[in-house]
Write a structure and sequence with these properties.
The chain is α+β, with helices and mostly antiparallel strands. It is about 20% helix and about 30% strand. It is globular, with a radius of gyration of 17 Å. It starts with a helix and ends with a strand.
């Protein structure tokens, strides 16, 4: 994680509340837990009231686009891409900082280009995140579910595995005063 991620704020011109209201789309956005900051930018959900063309502008982000029917994925885009939303519904998204997908999945940067792909085309096994995600009844529960799901998939960049440490990261979400000191998990006292 670099400090650049802390200062980079991507902009999607079509995700402003005024533009979305004109298209009959409502937007909800939430930041990830501290364990994922600098890797995951945000979770978002749009609710559509009519079919629409959703244009994704290149903004330096990678993303999952999740519908009740499946998961689509993109690396950093170099041009605008249209998603054809044919059915009014709730659509969930996860926005990753550039390179963020590599922290969760073993993929090569050249395995897909500046397009939006079905996740099953990119990952070894089909990504069925949509099924359990849409069992959650609202945006907040979906964001919580994705946060925990991603923490459990978090891997170290050079092939090492963080899965054994994921309970520590999950505990830090619940107990933010936890810290790792000389390899030990400790509770930091109030000052």
């Amino acid at each position: 994680m670099s400090d650049m991620n802390c200062h980079f704020e991507p902009f999607q011109p079509l995700l402003t509340h005024d533009v979305l209201a004109q298209k009959g789309i409502a937007l909800e956005v939430r930041q990830p837990s501290d364990a994922l900051k600098g890797i995951v930018h945000s979770y978002l959900q749009i609710t559509t009231t009519k079919p629409t063309q959703y244009i994704i502008m290149p903004d330096g982000m990678e993303a999952f686009y999740i519908s009740p029917q499946g998961v689509k994925v993109s690396r950093v885009l170099d041009r605008a891409v249209e998603l054809d939303i044919k059915v009014p519904d709730q659509y969930f998204g996860i926005r990753f900082y550039a390179g963020g997908l590599n922290r969760f999945f073993k993929t090569k940067a050249d395995c897909f280009s500046s397009e939006v792909y079905d996740a099953s085309e990119v990952f070894k096994e089909a990504l069925n995140l949509h099924a359990p995600l849409y069992q959650c009844s609202d945006f907040s529960l979906r964001a919580d579910f994705c946060d925990n799901w991603l923490i459990n998939k978090l891997t170290v960049e050079k092939g090492g595995n963080f899965r054994l440490l994921s309970p520590i990261f999950m505990a830090k979400v619940v107990y933010p005063r936890l810290a790792i000191y000389r390899g030990l998990l400790v509770l930091v006292a109030d000052s």
